[in-house]
Amino acid sequence: MLHNETNLEDMHRQAAAAASNDPSSTETADLPDLVGMNLDGATDLADALGFMWVIDEDATGQGRAQVGGNKWMVCSQDPAPGVTRLEALVVLHAVRHEEACP
Question: Per the confidence metrics, is the pTM higher than 0.70?
Answer without folding.
Answer: yes
